[in-house]
Amino acid sequence: MMAPNLGSIRKGGIVRVSPEAKTGDVLTVKAAYKGKIAEIQLMVRYSLEDTIKVDQAGKAVVTNLDDPVILVNKERNLPSDYIPSDLVPLKIPFSFQGESPKKSLRKEAAEALEALFKKAAEEDMNLTGVSGFRSYSMQKSIYENKVKTMGKEAAGRISAFPGQSEHQTGLAIDVSSTSVGNRLVESFGETKEGKWLAEHAPDFGFIIRYPKGKEEITGYSYEPWHIRYVGVNVAKEIAKRKITLDEFFALDTFETTQ
């Protein structure tokens, strides 16, 4: 048996997941036989093939735009006109003054980030927001400038091609601290704030999206400042397994370790 709103067990023991279930939801399946009871927890995870469509140019475009565990990378693109409908201003300190779309995230991610920043402040960690949501056009400008200054190959390791940026999802933000002058540098990962962020981010549903040692998998250089909201269940699973979001979706079997 299991929570009826998330799934059901059909004849033959087949588990059917409810359409309302989201990636990261955990199903507890119990089985009884001759007085013995076994229990297993399964985490919902949708197939990547079921969440893309190929456009006329042959480009894979993601379709699960509302899913907080949406996977966007060098092979999975966002529509060029996509702007999340639930963007809200962030109530956290930023590295710059004035209004900007970069000071916003999707509502669920924003609330989680504000809770993370509050906890950090309580523990004397001075975190600063640098860049949250970025539109397709904004990312296009950033990417093209990087290509002009350092070449396409080098730019591709540190900057996403327009349509492939997690910032456009409204679920990712670059975070720094005054200890490194609010810069986005690898040394942030060695500061007390950077270490605290890496350790505690999963408690609030965030992951370090481009971790050290996973460059060949993510396609990007190590970025200790770039955190991505995926929800607490998925974030803790990724942290416990020491994998990336890409690897999370590539797992063959999925019994949660939580």
Explain what this protein looks like in three dimensions:
This protein is α+β, with helices and mostly antiparallel strands and 258 residues long. It folds into 2 domains: 7-43, no CATH class; 68-250, Muramoyl-pentapeptide Carboxypeptidase, domain 2, CATH 3.30.1380. 26% of the residues lie in helices and 22% in strands. The protein has helices at residues 107-122, 136-150, 152-158, 192-200, 215-218, 232-241, 245-250, and strands spanning 7-9, 15-17, 26-33, 36-43, 52-54, 60-62, 87-89, 104-106, 127-131, 172-177, 206-210, 223-229. Strands 9-10-12-11 form a 4-stranded antiparallel β-sheet. The chain has a two-stranded antiparallel ribbon with strand order 1-2. Strand 5 and strand 6 form a beta hairpin. Helix 2 packs across helix 3 (152-158). The longest helix is centred in the middle third of the chain and has 16 residues, at 107-122. The radius of gyration is 20 Å and the shape is globular.
What are the SSEs and their pairings?
Elements: E1 7-9, E2 15-17, E3 26-33, E4 36-43, E5 52-54, E6 60-62, E7 87-89, E8 104-106, H1 107-122, E9 127-131, H2 136-150, H3 152-158, E10 172-177, H4 192-200, E11 206-210, H5 215-218, E12 223-229, H6 232-241, H7 245-250
Antiparallel strand pairs: 1-2, 3-4, 5-6, 7-8, 9-10, 10-12, 11-12
Helix pairs in contact: 2-3
Give a quick set of tags describing it.
alpha+beta; 22% strand; 258 residues; Muramoyl-pentapeptide Carboxypeptidase, domain 2; two-stranded antiparallel sheet; 12 strands; 7 helices; four-stranded antiparallel beta sheet; 2 domains
